[in-house]
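A favour, since you know our structure tokens better than I do. Could you add the entry underneath, on a fresh line?
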Amino acid sequence: MTKSAFKKATKNKVITAETDNLPRWDFSKFYPEVDSPEFEADFKKLEAWSADFTARYEGKIASLSGDELADALNEDIQKDDLAGKLLTYVSLKAVQDSKKYSPAEEAAENRYSRIASEGAFFSYELKQIEESAFKALLAGSKKLQEYAPRLERVRQGIPHTPPLEVTKFSSEANASGGWVSLYDKLQANQRFEFKRKKLNQTQILDIFTNDPDPARARELMRHSWMRSAIRVRP
């Protein structure tokens, strides 16, 4: 729709957060639902893949040839891609409907934290390769040279590498995750009454910032809860 056509179609219509027909995300290309067999099958595939990857490579990274290390890196990237697909899907579903999907998001993050802990050895062992040996591996393998930027990013953190046990524990414990999740849930469940309707925070702020009727924004400001919501704290 052109800009002029849009103006004509909305000439006598006041568009608000409650009445506008906003676009809706369609995630069916990913999975039918967060509790679908397809989603669960991919998560189980990721868990089994991670366990197998760890069994094959943990404690052996320094002994790999350049080509073998390239193969391991490629597999690790593919594994990360699957994890990214799963977590992005469930995260976006939670954004779409926090009250309904936040439990599924939290469960997925907890499952993935164990996978991340299991796979923490990989970057740790990459950092343990001596610099001279690392350069020799790169020089001797064209396959490995394709991953040079990724390897350099990993190895930049060598001076600040914690012990592997600490890395694994921090991945699995994810101490702040529960509090962040609780805050998100509380915020998502908040409702504010405005013009006899109960609106969530996003709808209220959208009226305040985007509503074409300035009188509605001024009316919002008369509510004490709105002044509290937009107060800037030092």
